[in-house]
Amino acid sequence: MPGFLSRLFLKSPHTLALENAPQAILCSNEQQVVTFFNQAAEQLWGYSKASVIGQPLRKLFAQAHLNAADSNQGAPVEVQVSKADGKMFWVELVISRV
Predict the structure, then answer these.
(1) pTM of the model
(2) Which of 21, 66, 78, 81 ranks highest by number of CB atoms within 10 Å?
(3) Closest by alpha carbon to 18, among 5, 37, 31, 34?
(4) Measuring CA to CA, how many Å separate 62 from each of 13, 16, 20, 32?
C-alpha cells in the first residue's frame, strides 16, 4: 500500500479531522511538552511538525502566556508569539484539559 494510504488507514477519523482542521491545533502533555501539531499550526508558525513535537510549549509561547491561559481555562487569551523566522504575530490561546 502506498505510504499516504497506509498512514491514512492507520489514523483514527478524529486524528485526521484535527490534522486537517483550518485552525492551528496543538496538544501537550502534563509536562507541557508538545505531542500534536497540525498542518495549520505548521503554516502559522513556520515550524515543521517534526521540529516541534517533543519540544516544550515554551518554544511557541512565553511561560507567562501559558500561565494566563491556564488560569482562564476555556476562555481565549490574546497573546503575541514569534514565528520561526522571528516575526511577531497575535493569536488567541485557549487551554482545554481533556
Answers:
(1) 0.80
(2) 66
(3) 37
(4) 32, 29, 26, 12
Distances (CA, A) of 34 to 3, 5, 6, 16, 49: 25, 26, 24, 18, 10
Residue 21 corresponds to which cell in the numbers above?
482542521
Q: Give the DSSP letter string of 3-63.
A: HHHHHHHHS-HHHHHHHT-SS--EEE-TT-BEEEE-HHHHHHH---HHHHTTSBGGGTS-H
Q: How far apart are the first and last CA of the chain?
A: 34
Instruction: Kindly report, residue by residue over 45-59, the tens digit of the pLDDT.
Output: 999 999 999 999 999
